[in-house]
Amino acid sequence: MENEIKLRFFFLIGTFIILFSVLSAFLLILIHRNKVFKIKEKESENLLRISLESEKKERQRIASDLHDGISGDLNALQNYITILQNKEKDNYKVCLLKEIETILHDTLENIQSISYNLMPSMLESQGLSPTLQSYFERIKKMESHFNLRKL
């Protein structure tokens, strides 16, 4: 009888030890998975941040190239055409130069618009809301400008 009680006691203690070991292992696995998940989440956030920063820098570079490089060249070309227009006596050539000047002017506006849309300077200095308001105002102006031209 006494041996049976001791045997049951050891069996009960052994069961608790095994149960405690299994629960401890399960808890350690959960803690490890949680840490791995947090590490992966931080890595993902860092990759996203780096990607967004790279995209922002590339947009700034392209916008700057458009504004400073191509716009400057087109402005110089527009000035040369104006000089030629002032010197030209033939009406046909004057009209042709005027048409070229109009096309250049529209191209410059398109480049400025593209440059602005790539990297609005207001976004950096004033934030998203004022930038969006300005953007919609520019769209309204363009619509009214094109509607007037059609008339």
Automatic annotation (TrEMBL):
- The answer to whether the entry has keyword Transmembrane helix is yes
- Superkingdom of the source? Bacteria
Q: Tell me the keywords, alphabetical order.
A: Kinase, Membrane, Transferase, Transmembrane, Transmembrane helix
The UniProt GO MF terms for this protein read:
phosphorelay sensor kinase activity; protein dimerization activity
Assigned GO CC terms: membrane
* E.C. numbers: 2.7.13.3
**Where does the signal peptide begin and end?**
none
Which Pfam families does the record associate with it? HisKA_3
Q: Which residues cross the membrane?
A: 6-31
Q: Any idea where the Signal transduction histidine kinase subgroup 3 dimerisation and phosphoacceptor domain is? A: 58-121
Top-level EC class as recorded in UniProt:
transferase
Database matches in InterPro entries: Sig_transdc_His_kin_sub3_dim/P
Would you tell me the protein name for this molecule?
A: Oxygen sensor histidine kinase nreB
Q: Which source organism does the UniProt entry give? A: Chryseobacterium indoltheticum
Gene name per UniProt: nreB
